[in-house]
Each structure stands twice: as C-alpha cells, then as structure tokens.
Write a structure and sequence with these properties.
186 residues; alpha/beta; Rossmann fold; 6 strands
C-alpha cells in the first residue's frame, strides 16, 4: 500500500468515526411487517444488481411500504441502464468531499429521511455505501456481515463469497419477516 493511499485510509477512518460519533438515532428492533418507510442502499454499478433492487422496491411498494433507494455507482459515468426514478437517487465517489461531507442534496436528503428500516445491500468492501449506512437516521439497520462494520448495523447477515445479491435479499427478507417489534408493558 502506498503512503498516499495509507494516509487517505487513515483520514477516511478518522472522519468516519467523527461523523458517526456525533450522530444520535433512536434504535428500535423493527421487522418487515412493522416498517412503513424502508431505505435501501445498493451498488448500482451492474445491470443485474440494479434489476434485483428495482424488483425488490416493487415488491415492497406493493405491500404498502414507502421506499427510498440510494444507488452507489462505481464508474465515473452513470451507466446507460440507470435512469432516475421517483424512488431512487444515485451517487458516486465525487459526491463526497475529502473529509466525507456530503456534496449532493440527494445524499443529504437520504441520510436525514426518517426510516423505520435500512437495508444496505452493497458488498462490504465498498466504503461510501457503508458510510451512508452509518450516518443514516434509520431506526433499524441491516447489512452484510464484516467484522470491521459491526458498529454500523443492528443486524448483520453473513453471506458466502462471492456476494450474491439475490440470495442476500432473500435472506434479509426471510429474517425480517420473523422479527416482530417487542411489546412494551406499561
């Protein structure tokens, strides 16, 4: 690893921690049935993955959920298969400043949206989607297991490599259908 890359990683890590530590959210165990507003973070770089997420959003909306998706595009140019929709926004690395400040109004809006449930469907190796998941105001966060990202999520699901999005979505939905919001006794 070059010195410049090492310094960049250390700076990212520092600003990541600073931003996460200053954010406060109300954590609540939330299953799929109780969730009204669902946020989805995903890797929009590949056509097949994008199609999987569009299908998931359709299913969630048909079941009465409000859904807001944020796709991360690794390419410098947005791929031709991606088109803006009312429920989706897209971001790239250039939408984050060197100290991880959000440069895009769509990113700010996404992170400030009150969500019952956040599904981070991106592979664990992508930094910016994980950062978004960490700073989002969702009550319950679900993501792919990685030992360095345990503090981000309330529930993590470990998938085998290579990461298969369809399988991960199926596992997320399966477990979230089992979870019921705890009953509080007064």
């Amino acid at each position: 690893m070059s010195v410049l890359k090492w310094i960049r990683e250390k700076l990212r890590s520092y600003f990541f921690r600073v931003e996460v530590n200053k954010r406060r959210r109300v954590k609540t165990v939330m299953g799929l049935d109780e969730s009204r507003m669902v946020g989805i973070i995903f890797d929009a770089s590949e056509s097949a993955d994008y199609s999987q997420v569009v299908s998931l959003v359709s299913r969630l909306r048909e079941s009465g959920k409000k859904v807001r998706g944020m796709g991360f595009v690794r390419q410098k140019q947005k791929p031709a298969f991606i088109f803006d929709q009312i429920h989706f926004s897209f971001c790239q690395a250039r939408d984050f400043s060197w100290n991880l400040k959000l440069k895009s109004p769509a990113l700010v809006e996404f992170t400030e949206t009150e969500m019952d449930l956040l599904l981070d469907l991106s592979p664990s190796g992508l930094f910016f989607p994980k950062y978004l998941a960490a700073i989002t105001n969702a009550r319950y966060k679900v993501g792919n297991y990685h030992p360095d990202q345990v503090e981000i999520y309330d529930m993590m699901i470990q998938e085998k490599e290579p990461f298969d999005l369809k399988e991960f979505i199926d596992h997320c939905l399966q477990y979230l259908k089992i979870i019921k919001k705890p009953v509080t006794h007064a």
